[in-house]
Amino acid sequence: MDKQRSNPSGQARSETSRRSLPLRTIVQGFFLALTVLIGVQFTIFAWQLRHGTGPTVGRPPGVEAFLPISSVISLRYWLLTGVFNRIHPAGFVLLLIIGSVSLLLKRGFCSWVCPFGLLGDCLEKVHRALFRRRLSLPRFLDYPLRSLKYLLLLFFVWAIFVRMDVLQLERFIASPYNRVADLMMLRFFAPPSRTTVVVLAVLTALTLAVPFFWCRYLCPYGARLGGRSLLSPFKIRRDPDQCITCKRCSAVCPARIPVHRAYSVRSDECHACLRCVQACPVAQTLTLSLPGRRTPVSPRRYAAALILAFLLGTSGARLAGHWHNAIPEREYRLHVAQMGHPAYQHNRGTVPDYDLGELGLQDAGAAVDGTP
Ligand code: SF4
Ligand code: SF4
To answer: How far is the CA of 246 from the centre of ligand 1 (A)?
Structure first.
């Protein structure tokens, strides 16, 4: 018997799914707008500093989301000393929020929040328009390439968690380089150097040829979240008694997971995008749920939970005084005036010897130990 036709609720479910399809795009658009807003505000802040005309706008703390190495170093320092340093506290807070969300709600950050996830979605659409189907690498290339992002992650874990002791962590956190890591990052992109342009062009071309190339093979942040997401009690779960083996779930899965064969999806590559859930034509057959298919989470609830986690986490950090950094404007002016100094260099996670007093930053050390 055709189970799809015998299940009127399945028909209704399918229509509901089609109507709710843009939900993830709306959420991604919201976070992209937030990112652009932060980027514009920070660019104005940096431009005014450089030209001595202000700044009349504040530095947006959210920019620290783009300083993952500094944030992981803060995490290690906090684990060893219990001190929440005040150089880039917002980056550390966001690292904690994203890590906690992945433990409970899988890798939703990648497909609902991260601007690179949205870019990957857009490039996948262009890919399908160009090639009329989704091309992918053969398994013998796919498996070793997928391990690349874990190797990158292992390198960072080794460099920060194994190689650096408390003194080295403290030296990095207090260094002139780290204090202006956000301004350094902006210099990398605006204006972009030839190397930046070439790297971005190659990554874009690779992602056009193989959808989600960056996310699937290279992103160490995705590797971190993928490993954690395996611990999440929520999984994509299939009811084999209701399933009509139409394979729509597998066809839409950007992670190339054979969802139609799984009882529950236990893959580090699952982004919790819920495309499979929305594509399934039979109601309650494929759900993001707890063991026993209890507490199924609809895309709407999932989106609400993600947004709530960010709202509560960042609001809590503001209230606790762990959101704005302790670098005053006059210190930023000093940095901007002397950023060509060798003390601002950085080589693969290590900073050169520096003397804060020589740079006119003798009062700047206090922010590292969390004191005002
Ligand atoms: S299994 Fe489903 S939720 Fe996971 S990546 Fe594939 S389509 Fe998205
Ligand atoms: S679980 Fe997958 S294969 Fe089964 S009915 Fe749903 S979309 Fe079709």
So the answer is: 16
